[in-house]
Design goal:
This protein has 129 residues and is mainly alpha-helical. The chain folds into two domains: 3-49; 54-129, no CATH class. The chain has helices at 3-23, 29-49, 94-98. The longest helix is centred in the first third of the chain and has 21 residues, at 3-23. It is elongated. The two termini are 20 Å apart. The chain binds zinc ion. Zinc ion (ZN) is lined by residues 70, 72, 83, 85, 92-93, 95-96.
Amino acid sequence: MNNYYLQFIKNHLRDDILQEITVDKENYPLLLKELNILIQKVDFEEKVKNTSKTHMIRDRVLYKDRDNLCKARVWNEGYGGQCSQKASCNGFCKTHFKKGGINWWLGTIDGPRPERPINERDKIHVWLN
Ligand SMILES: [Zn+2]
């Protein structure tokens, strides 16, 4: 991670950078790609900072594909991830087992992610990543 770019972007200049690069993007495909990745990271960090305790986004890499954990996919404010609870009922935690297990509205982490999941209150959700 190049700290210079990170600081640059964090100082609210990223829109200016993007505009400049877009003009000659044929010449800077790699730089553009790198910049987009950085912007996504910064956006994610800002989003994490700005969420309340009840709607906190967690980096789910720690829980990724862990066999001993519940295999239910969690919403994680649109970023998805694996439930961090212990699997005690057929591969699910008690909560997700009670809420439908294999029929849980966000599916399981060993299966495909539903494209437009609909929760228990019939609300359509759109992933942010
Ligand atoms: Zn669970």
